[in-house]
Amino acid sequence: MCRNIKTLYNFEPPATDEEIRASALQFVRKLSGFNTPSKLNEAAFNRAVEQVSEAAALLMNSLVTLAPPKNREAERARAQLLSVKRFGNPG
What pLDDT does 1 receive? Predict the structure, then answer.
């Protein structure tokens, strides 16, 4: 599992195209093992990022839920609290 890829679905405000693309980029980096591909692999890498972005956007636009959207700030604060519990107080 890619730990840095965050849930983007059912938030208010909705995920932006940039957030979806960033998630796709992380996914392709994880699959390929490249942080930055060589010139030889650059076209295939970039094509994969675009295709994963399109698939992710299609998925997010197709999903249906009856649950109310989550608040981004409340979820961020909750994650921060869990991090402090798990790793201790930063600083």
Answer: 46
Q: What is the pTM of this model?
A: 0.79
Each residue of 10-32: b (16+ CB within 10 Å) or e?
A: eeeeebeeeebbbbbbbbbbeee
Classify residue 24: in a domain, yes or no: yes
Q: How many residues make up the chain in this entry?
A: 91
Domain boundaries, position 42: 11-87
How confident is residue 26, by pLDDT bands cut at 50, 70 and 90?
very high
| Best CA proximity match to 62, nearest among 10, 22, 23, 18 | 10
